[in-house]
Specification:
Periplasmic beta-glucosidase, 6-stranded parallel sheet, 23 helices, alpha/beta, TIM Barrel, 765 residues, 3 domains, globular, 27 strands, Rossmann fold, Immunoglobulin-like, 6-stranded mixed sheet
């Protein structure tokens, strides 16, 4: 062997040793799983492998008819990897039995469902949940949802939805956690942990993070629309919550409908392989959204065979409903448009998920009928929902301390949502027990007993136009009944109630399906017929509390100027009426803070706190100055800023104390304030930390949330609240997409919302 060959061998040995040292050793359990799946794959035909990549919707199969259903033959033939939209232990067990007893390979199925904000026990919509700023509450809501769903046979949820959105016109803003990447990341982690736990017990289910990626930035706020942004913005402002969910161990990811960089996400190798797997180290499987593969045809990416191959090549593993994989991959394999290794890899990931769930050891692990009887919609779960719901409410206004209400006299309860069983839950409440929802009227009755009198009037429909109202409401909710009286007659009845009342509680806003999928709008005000009612009520001179149901930030300029008290309750869920009564009467002090900015009008959209400065910024507090970045007709200010929310008590903040004005790389400093409850009630305050990087290699936002703590204080009590700031808190993705902290000067803010803050400064050396 000559010297050159010896050198090559030596270098090869060095490289192999280095690789062995850096490669994570396989645990005994993982080795056992790999052996099992390797043996299984070796026995499977190509058709059976492709079958594992197929996720059809079953429809809700009638009990006793599973074996004769249309889907049964495909399951027997090994053409189905999982099903969704089927619930109930008896039904799921019957279908699982077909897979594990009547198919050749006896591979169990996954059973997925859109368990978005609870199962039978429904929690606030995710946007409302995010306003708790309480990660224990968020995680607890996901834990209860997983317990209840798994007790009904479901082992996979298409949640959490972590899309950042800064456009309230987009209907699906209701399903996410608002506008901020940091807050959204904390919530994403909490939800994944709540659903999955350690993926060992029979009440822990697979999470599916969606919609990857950038779905919340659809142009014009129009659902399914194009998304186009720089990679710097993607990495800094929109991708962090997806990555946080992956870091928390999310088992699956769902591709989004929109395009990214000119390629539909479902077919984007950059998204699904380069970022998700290579950069973030994701080890789970990727599923499309509903018909996501065939929809690429309309995007202009080719015929069904072409787009199916595109998706597999990109790194998609499972085809929801489209059946493009099932119908074309074998042909594409023969034509060398895809490889056997790609099919094997995708199949392996699906089988791994089933193995980790314990389905190979016990296919009926999630089919315990006794659990369903005891653990679903239990009093304990409903109590948790009640507490979490009350914590999500945001008090937007409370002039003259109208709230909390006294339990005396006569209360006029008026509005289309005052006694509305079907609209307490919000969108994606697929397992809600509508006949058991607690309406606002019922909640007030439960709280008052005989202590005060309640008079009621509907006052208005949701919308004046019956055809339009059907589009908004009845398409999804056939239980809703419209009042056939004229607007004038309904207002007249409401005014009679108001005249006899000491205080008016006006329960208004949106219906459950005003937001959600395919529910985008261009008008984000309270519907005009309801506003007409509110204006007439205001003329009576009676004190008015507006209890507002909504799934998006609304433009409430008139309401804010004319109504003394506004409580935003989002869609609270199963215990809506009880939790609303808890807050109205002061049993619970509201502590919710906005996770989205509320604009003055739709023309300001998109409006968000972490914006960039222009070269001609408008001075803070000013409205108009020529040749500055502003509007002629309205100020740049939001109606309610990000992080905003009032309390029945008041809080004061001391000046900020820094442990040092200099932060050295690799070290940390602390920032502290003394928070004091200066009011009459015990209450919770979300103390928020923001940082601004004053000079960067790329332009930086005027503020970025970097920490928060929810603090409970008794009346008169004080507490020092301390944050640690390290170099890591100052990092961002630069123009080369490197995650760096750049030395220089920083501003640091601590306060009650993104606008009302104390300020100091420090330097990173």
């Amino acid at each position: 062997m000559n010297r050159a060959n010896i050198l090559v061998v030596f270098l090869t040995i060095l490289a192999l040793n280095a690789s062995a040292q850096t490669k994570k050793p396989v645990s005994a359990e993982e080795g056992k799983m790999n052996t099992f799946i390797n043996n299984l794959l070796a026995k499977m035909t190509i058709d059976e492998k492709i079958g594992q990549l197929n996720l059809p919707s079953s429809g809700d199969i009638t009990t006793g008819q599973a074996n004769s259903s249309d889907i049964a033959k495909k399951i027997k033939d090994g053409q189905v990897g999982g099903l969704f939209n089927i619930k109930g232990v008896e039904k799921i067990k019957a279908v699982q039995k077909i897979a594990v007893e009547n198919s050749r390979m006896k591979i169990p199925l996954l059973f997925g469902m859109d368990v978005i904000h609870g199962y039978n026990t429904v929690f606030p919509i995710p946007l409302g949940l995010s306003c708790t700023w309480d990660m224990n509450a968020v995680q607890k809501s996901a834990r209860v949802a997983a317990i209840e769903a798994s007790a009904s046979g479901i082992n996979w949820t298409f949640s959490p939805m972590v899309d950042i959105s800064r456009d309230p016109r987009w209907g699906r803003i209701s399903e996410g956690s608002g506008e901020d990447a940091y807050l959204g990341s904390q919530i994403a982690k909490a939800m994944v942990i709540g659903y999955q736990g350690k993926l060992q017990a029979n009440n822990e289910i697979l999470a599916c993070v969606k919609h990857y990626a950038l779905y919340g930035a659809a142009e014009g706020g129009r659902d399914y629309n194009t998304t186009d942004m720089s990679k710097v913005r993607m990495y800094n402002e929109y991708l962090p919550p997806y990555k946080a969910a992956v870091d928390a161990g999310a088992a699956s990811i769902m591709a989004s409908f929109n395009e990214v960089d000119g390629i539909p996400a479902t077919g984007s190798k950059w998204l699904m392989t380069e970022v998700l797997r290579n950069q973030w180290g994701f080890k789970g499987f990727v599923v499309t959204d509903y018909t996501g593969i065939p929809e690429m045809i309309a995007h202009g990416m080719g015929d069904l065979q072409t787009v199916s191959a595109l998706a597999l090549n990109a790194g998609v593993d499972m085809d929801m409903v489209g059946e493009g994989f099932l119908g074309t991959l074998k042909k594409s394999l023969s034509e060398k448009k895809v490889t056997l290794q790609q099919i094997d890899n995708a199949c392996r990931l699906i089988l791994q998920a089933k193995y980790k769930l314990g389905l190979f050891a016990d296919p009926y692990k999630f089919c315990d009928a006794q659990r369903a009887e005891k653990e679903v919609f239990s009093p304990e779960n409903r109590q948790i929902a009640r507490e979490v719901s009350a914590e999500s409410f945001v008090l937007l206004k409370n002039d003259n301390n109208i709230l909390p209400l006294k339990k005396t006299g006569t209360i006029g309860l008026i509005g289309p949502l005052a006694d509305n069983t079907a609209n307490m839950y919000g969108t994606w409440s697929v397992a809600a027990l509508f006949d058991k929802s607690v309406t606002v009227l019922q909640g007030l009755k439960n709280a008052l007993g005989n202590d005060a009198k309640i008079l009621t009037a509907r006052g208005s429909n949701f919308l004046a136009d019956s055809v339009m109202e059907h589009r908004y409401v009845n398409i999804h909710n056939p239980t809703y009944v419209r009042d056939s009286r004229s607007e004038a007659d309904m207002i007249k009845e409401a005014l009679k109630v108001a005249e006899k009342s000491d205080v008016v509680v006006a329960v208004m806003g949106e219906g459950s399906e005003f937001t959600g999928e395919s529910s985008s709008v261009t008008n984000i005000e309270i519907p005009q017929t309801q506003k007409n009612l509110l204006k007439e009520l205001a003329k009576t001179g009676k004190p008015i509390v507006l209890v507002m149901f909504t799934g998006r930030p609304l433009a409430l300029k008139w309401e804010n100027e004319n109504i003394p008290a506004i409580l935003n309750v989002w869609f609270p869920g199963s215990e809506a009426g009880n939790s609303i009564a808890d807050v109205l009467f002061g049993h619970v002090n509201p502590s919710g803070k906005l996770s989205t900015t509320f604009p003055q009008n739709v023309g300001q959209v998109p409006l968000y706190y972490a914006h960039k400065n222009t070269g001609r910024p408008l001075a803070e507090g000013k409205w108009f100055e020529k040749f500055r970045s502003n509007y002629l007709d309205v100020s740049n200010d939001p109606l309610f800023p990000f992080g905003y929310g009032l309390s029945y008590t008041s809080f004061s903040y001391s000046d900020i104390k820094l442990s040092s004005n200099t932060l050295t790389k690799g070290k940390s400093i602390t920032a502290s304030v003394t928070l004091t409850n200066t009011g009459k009630y015990e209450g919770k305050e979300v103390v928020q930390l923001y940082i601004r990087d004053l000079v960067g290699s790329i332009t930086r936002p005027v503020k970025e949330l970097k920490g928060f703590q929810k603090i409970n204080l008794k009346a008169g009590e004080s507490k020092q609240v301390t944050f640690n700031i390290s170099e890591n808190d100052l990092k961002f993705y630069n123009s080369d997409l490197k995650f760096v902290a750049e030395p220089g000067d920083f501003k640091l803010f601590i306060g009650t919302n993104s606008h009302d803050v104390k300020e100091t400064a420090f330097t990173l050396k």
